[in-house]
Design brief:
- 4 copies of one chain form a homotetramer.
- By secondary structure, chain A is an alpha/beta fold.
- The first copy, chain A, has helices spanning 26-38, 58-71, 86-98, 115-129, 141-144, 150-159, 174-185, 203-209, 221-232, 236-253, 259-269, 287-301, and strands spanning 9-13, 43-46, 76-80, 103-106, 135-139, 163-168, 193-196, 213-216.
- An 8-stranded parallel β-barrel of chain A has the order 1-2-3-4-5-6-7-8, surrounded by 5 helices.
- In chain A, helix 3 packs across helix 4 (115-129), helix 4 runs parallel beside helix 6 and helix 10 (236-253) runs antiparallel to helix 12 (287-301).
- Chain A binds chain B through residues 171-172, 174-175, 178, 201-202, 204-205, 208-209, 240, 243-244, 247-248, 251-252, 255-259, 286, 288-289, 292, 299, and chain B through 171-172, 174-175, 178, 201-202, 204-205, 208-209, 240, 243-244, 247-248, 251-252, 255-259, 286, 288-289, 292, 299.
């Protein structure tokens, strides 16, 4: 059940549930996994940027990953292994795969600038973790400040056969999907899976441009699952209607910094996790912010009953 | 009719209309001004980041500003004078005011980092242009990579009496509005006008947090005018209904790089300007992109007839 | 007397002399030009980063350039035309060439990241200013934060025949010179002139790696002229002895921010310009700083009499 | 023997010795420690930026630190604990102190911008590691891209009593030392130890401005020890003579990227470590580069016999 370039559907970017004292809330890890499984996710991604991974020490990180892998045994689990050095990256990647992960995800370090620096970085990373581990290339310029052209992504994919998926998170990125699918058609790049991020804010059109699904972290992964499915079934209006109904809230959740607080607040309200706590240093939602989210949920519930919480 | 800290309503960030050969389309400058006036804008901002200002030479820049000031004589016109050096900033600011501008807008240069550097920069800028010109402080970290805390904004406003308005474009920025309004209430900062940017993507809640209006560049400034008005009248549901109907398109237009192409494409479709041309080097909309915008307009037209173009 | 790829020797990066009130000190412009001519410089570069160019308005900029061109009529004058937009760049470049400049110098804008973005930027710049103007490519990552690999520089040089010179200012950059000269040898790049910057801090070895000379701004351009000449004559020990004697002061002058204050202070002491004034906003040398420079000059004067001022 | 604000002298920034296969060269760790002790260093700093720390996994990192602490038992050992997250930082800091470290060193993460963000970061870091660990504040804007004003440094020092030392590595930074010492004199900041970095390139004047010594990584720490001592003894000319003799090589070693290769090459030549190997991905010195270093050593040996290797 290792990750391949045929992967599709919705991979939920999982937050790490904490209790109010800052400990890992293992019960919520289980309930969250059960929820993702029930609503039809294809996979779960743990220890990503929104998973508060840097706040976990090495033992906690692998413990969380292992619990998710064990509990969500019907889903593919991708483990984020981005690290400032290759020794730590290798260590976490090997442990994750030993624990049963489907693959790992690697983001470039922020200091990379030139095309050659970027390509070289991923070659060295794969040399470090081993070429036997399927991995996801994370392209997220807004946060990582590394800009990869389609041509650079193609070089990485052609040079490194163990890369099976692109987590597409450029912004804007619709043309990038079209260009990469064009590379596949003209034979200059082997086919890969493309799942899209950015909180799902462009999922409606990303699917129409050729994405295979979503890998992102909205508090309603069930909406993502539905939009991906409706889009694949060719039910364009239905996909857009559902998407548009959620857009006001999805936009609100996509605010940098406070976004994770919104997500955990809604997930706790929905009963997916027990607490909306973040381990320190964390962002928090003001009273005004909570009232705004409640208002958005109430408006959403008119069109999507799942928001009536 | 100089700008004061009582300014409110919608200030349209005006694009610069070009003809397909790259010349300034002076006829469209007039029709655009007429449109902004008719739909109820309070002001127009020219030579901003989205106005392709760096592609104009010094003579063209002042010519465009002067034409807008003359034609839109019922509106307040703000002229962007951000420049890498103070000599050019002073020169444009004085000329703009002589031509009848209501005020000028100044953004920080990207290299500023520390609080003191930021405050010092604006002191030097005002020393250069003169303390008699009302000016707008532009706070736009996403594009300018300069981060001003509420405390730094307060220092600037307290130190420089000619600052009358904040163009609020932090992202996320709802708490920033609340904090600044709190400074006014506790007496630590004099009252200023706050108009919000970011393509209007958070205008619904920005108004509720205390903004005086919008200063941004969506292709439907009439929607911005309406949302600002509805919000001030306390018609919350109506404001959100109209806002939500536009959000899918507003979100699409807010894509960096390609956003201006979308805006001009829609404005040309609406007959506000004659061409969607950008002076080189410009972004352009692919066939797929145009089809997506058309689709969004068709969906929007169901709820807002003004989109039936 | 237009710039070609045969250019060599020392091109002095000229500061702009101001009087204490902030006006351009035209008398010092002349005396400075005379000095550069007398000590054997091959050229002068005006309106560069260290020339306080952004503090000049458009009319002043061309006036300074024209005066230097006229006075230093035995030297080649390169005019810096870097600008945030192509309209201003074209305007200044055409005026400079009309006034008799030998060529222009263009730096990339700081926002460029990918290889393609960089190459495209220079193509657009040359399309804007015209392909008939010989120009210098400025490679200065430390200040401009744009990283050009040797491969990218080669693409620019091969695509744009009017590029005749590289102002080499990468840091470290010795291997870059060797790589570029290697490209010339293997026939993959046409020959260009390479002059080096960075305040001359590596001039000793840059010459040995194949540089044609220096284009930088040390307060002793006569030392640069001598080191370039000694190195070309194969007098290695003499070149290094002279260079090493100046290194403590050259290092001191190379401090970012305060460096220009040091340079003008020493140039004024040497009688090259009348005042060490900078136009606001400028850096200044503290009393401790001036004493340190005086001490360094006194130590240097033991080995090089020209420092006895 | 914990670190206090009375610390002075030279703390050597230690590289991590590797064998050609990439394993840690434990024998060289010992010989290096012995060398630092013999030449009169006051302390050793391990796991810093130039110590290839990110290439070590967690177990290796603490093993290297422990070996240095044990072997160099007459010196104070500072352990770099900078990390992307506080969990890893705490874990390493506690282990290092348990192993006998004198203190730890913390650098800000590169994303910090505003004064408040910087101060808050260090408060959270100390909350994480515990306020009982003496620590060194690393101020290194050139590499870390975080700019701390003297005022921000003062806030950190006043708020966090366990901060006992500033590793001063701003560039330029002479005025910063003077300003901070001024804060101490006017009573607005408690006294701290200031050791300077930047490869020692300004050590001559840094001592005269009030630094307590050097914490940096030149291949001749014995020179640093001597310059610090001579300067404290008031032998100004002798200090500068020795410093100036080394400056051509020190400047060469200070090149970013290739600097560590130069340092290890010279240290291996001097017999301080057995190999100049770096763990992958590492920089390397070309044949031309090695010849240049050899030439610089030969020239230096005329004035300082220790360079005759």
């Amino acid at each position: 059940m290792q990750l391949t370039n045929k992967a599709e559907g919705t991979f939920a970017i999982a937050p790490t549930p904490f209790d109010p004292e800052g400990g890992i809330d293992v019960k919520s890890v289980d309930s969250m996994c059960d929820f993702y499984t029930e609503v039809g996710c294809s996979g779960i991604t743990v220890l990503g940027i929104m998973g508060e991974a840097p706040k976990l020490d090495a033992d906690e990180a692998i413990a969380v990953a292992s619990q998710v892998i064990k509990r969500a045994d019907k889903l593919q689990v991708v483990v984020g292994v981005s690290a400032p050095g290759f020794a730590a990256m290798r260590s976490l990647a090997r442990k994750a795969m030993d624990a049963g992960a489907a693959g790992v995800m690697i983001a470039p370090i922020p200091s990379l600038r030139t095309d050659d620096q970027i390509v070289t970085y991923f070659k060295q990373a794969i040399e470090a973790i081993g070429s036997d581990i399927p991995w996801v290339l994370q392209d997220y310029p807004l946060t990582l400040s590394v800009q990869m052209t389609p041509g650079v992504i193609r070089r990485i994919i052609q040079d490194l056969p163990s890369c099976v998926m692109l987590k597409h998170e450029d912004w804007p990125g619709l043309e990038k999907i079209s260009t990469l699918r064009g590379f596949e058609k003209d034979g200059s790049m082997r086919p890969i899976s493309i799942l899209t991020g950015n909180g799902g804010l462009f999922l409606d059109f990303e699917m129409e441009r050729g994405a295979d699904g979503a890998m992102t972290g909205y508090a309603f992964p069930d909406m993502l699952v539905d939009v991906v499915r409706l889009s694949k079934e060719g039910r364009r209006e239905d996909a857009h209607d559902l998407f548009d109904a959620h857009l006001p809230l999805a936009r609100y959740e996509q605010q940098q910094g406070v976004g994770l607080a919104v997500r955990k607040y809604v997930m706790a309200k929905r009963g997916i996790i027990a607490h909306d706590a973040q381990r320190k240093p964390g962002s928090s939602l003001s009273a005004a912010g909570r009232a705004e989210v409640d208002y958005l949920l109430a408006r959403l519930a008119i069109k999507d009953k799942r928001a009536a919480v």
